[in-house]
Amino acid sequence: MNLPRLRTTLSRGVIIPSMLFIIAVSLLSAVFPALTNNLLTQVKQFIFVNLNWIYVWSVTAFVIFLIYLMVGRYGSIRLGRNNSKPEYSFFSWISMLFAAGMGIGLMYFSVAEPIQHFSNDVFAAGSQVQRAKNAQMYTFFHWGVHAWAIYGVVGLSLAYFSYRYRLPLSLRSCFYPLLKDKIKGKWGNAIDVFALCSTFFGITTTLGFGVVQINSGLRTLNILPESNFTYQALIVAVLVSLAVISAVSGLDKGVKLLSSINIIAVMILLTFVLILGPSIYIIGSLTDGIGNYINNFFSLTFNTHVYEENTKPWFYDWTILYWAWWISWSPYVGIFIARISKGRTIREFVAAVLIIPTLFNFVWMTVFGNSAIWFDMNIANGALSSLAGDPDALMFRFLEYLPFSTVASIITIVIIIIFFVTSADSGMFVMNSIATKNARISPKWQTIGWGVLLGGLALLLLKVGGLDALQSMTLITALPFSIIMLLFIVSLVKALSVDRSYYEREFAVTTVPWTGTSWKQRLRQIVSFKDRTTVNYFMNTVVQAAFAELQEEFLRNNVVAAVKKSDNPECFEIQVRNDRINNFIYGVKVESRIISEYIFDDSLPDAEQHQLFYPKSYFGDDRPGYDVSLFTKNELISDVLKHYDRYIAIVLEEQNNMFISSEDNYRLK
Q: Does the residue 510 lie in any domain?
């Protein structure tokens, strides 16, 4: 009996090495959790202590680069064809971007991080007020422009090369200007393997920690009696099933719907805490905090704490860890936001990715974090600070100090669940996209398989305590990927420069005098390949005849002119002498350029070499010249006279003396 062959779109060059590496690391973390975690932690710590400057400079470069694109000349370039329109409304776009970009982290750290900074011994020397300000400032720093710049660089590179160059939505495509067609081979596979493994590790650890927080919230509400593996397995089974259903439904249905619902629920919870919490304090501290962040922006950006020994461990465990975490997540988030950003301009993309999420995060972290600090200082008498080591429960303990705390906790759990589902389903989409080299249609079993693999490994590592090891592995991969992202910038700059030159290139100077009377001859000249012999013939007939006729007419009008043919037979020039100022010079010389391999066989059927020869004009004042191969003799004479008229006009203006007075007339002597 012959079994039906299972249809798949998976790329063997990507999926096989990726699965081998993922399974190997996961098994090591599961079978030898303590040993693996200890080894990976040592590697991570070595990187954080000795190579933290790579993260600092890389993230700084990302911020500067994106701001330059937002305000610079490339901002109007569209992510797609010039007439492309966005596929999603602005609200849906921002909602999905948010769900993928920060998700569970907003719920997990909005209270935990400010409280942990506030209660940290590093800041104990300051007053309560100063500690509260520092807690807010560093939280803004970690969740602000720098974090979203990391996502923005990857997302923009992917969107640009995918929709503008029409390449696969894959990280390998971002290297096209540097590697060209090599991205289709082993180099491209290696890049995608790295992206797939990094994405898988990041999502698995995040989902594992998210399950723990959901379990903690349900226990706080007395819905579950305790936090243990049995209940966590049940939670994973339910939520991964929902994520699979959402992912199978597609971006336009499941992910879009859940993201829109979640952003509404987030706004409801935010408004609830703002109104029922210490409202005046929240609004005032938000204003003060944004000003404090702006004032310290550059010192925060470049600070490596090299002169502050007591703050170095905090710097490694927070700032550097965050930069590594965001970088390790950037393939996943970048691919997802690129997928939903077709049709946006670069300026619109960067402004939305950098500014809108940053401002929202500032509001969110202030409303929850500063409220928690206020309660801790004024009502709880340090009770929340004492829970700094239990971040899973901090959000729910904080909500107990507000009216209707049960309702708020239920909304919080619903939001975390939806964030969990949207992170998982968008993660399935991204991983399948990487593993299939962006296949448009894949069998549903592949999506289900990614969900089962994510949920199964998350539970396995939760059971044996291997999540910390996997998290360390994720952070380690951030170092090489930060270098890859810097190469993305190099590649993107090169491509954008070509892009702008292509669309802004004007008609050749030689086309200005065309009337259409000799169009058949023009066409023959355009499609024929110009080798060195052909161009030399043009030089010895058209150029030499034009210059000789001009010289004769100049002399007839009492203007001293000379035609000079250099020792190189491929260069002619006509000069008008002047003893006090620069001579007028108009020359033509033979130049060559490399023919693009993409049009070598088709557009130039007579070509036998990779070089194209052409006659190029040049001038005495070193202005750039141009191809004159399509000029007739009379048109070339006319072009010389246009430049001579310009020369006379400049000579007559006194303000130009500094440019025209020169002893550089030796070429006629």
A: no
